[in-house]
Amino acid sequence: MAFGRLERTRTDAPMSDINVTPLVDVMLVLLVIFILTAPLLTSAIRLDLPKAESAQAGEAPLAVTLVVDGQGQIYLNDKPTLLPELATQLKAVASHRPDTEVQLRADQSVPYGRVVEVMGAAQKAGLSRIGFVADAPVATPAR
Asked: Is 103 helix (H, G, I), strand (E, B) or coil?
């Protein structure tokens, strides 16, 4: 009787490369999620803006956004503020860049006096460039 070794078949070495396919799948899903949610994050304040024919959204290189909602609450760059605080915040902006444009968005149900108060605070702070934001009117089909 002879004792010997059994012949072993040679197997391939284990693969140690990263599987990239699941990584690409996850990245594409995240990209789609961000594409869908990005427009929802632009403005959280709901306004019923007045309609105007010449309403074109012009982007100013330096601008602050002032919003007056339907209840008369004032927002500076989407942060709620009071009128006395608004004046000091706008003075700080004007001291850094006096050519900053104020983009004023006011709900159409807000009394005109409240809008004038906000405009006066901006002008008193030294910001003289004020732009009014409006929505374009809905086009009705011709008959």
From this structure: strand
Q: Are strands 79-81 and 101-106 parallel, antiparallel or unpaired?
A: unpaired
Q: What gap in Å lies between CA 75 and CA 69, rounded to an integer? A: 8
Strands lying side by side in the sheet with 129-132: 79-81, 74-76, 63-68, 101-106, 129-132
pLDDT of residue 29: 96
φ, ψ of residue 22 to 5 degrees: the values are -65, -35
Residue 68, judged by CB atoms within 10 A of its CB (0-12, 13-18, 19+), counts as: buried
Could you tell me the two tokens for 141? 């089909």
Torsions phi, psi for 102 (to 5 deg)? -100, 120
Tell me: the pLDDT tens digits for 46-104?
A: 767 677 666 555 554 688 888 998 888 999 988 999 988 988 898 988 888 888 888 88
Positive or negative torsion for Cα 46, 51, 55, 60: negative
Query: pTM higher than 0.85 for the full model?
Result: no
| 129 closest CA partner among 88, 93, 81 | 93
Distance of alpha carbon 67 from the chain centroid: 14
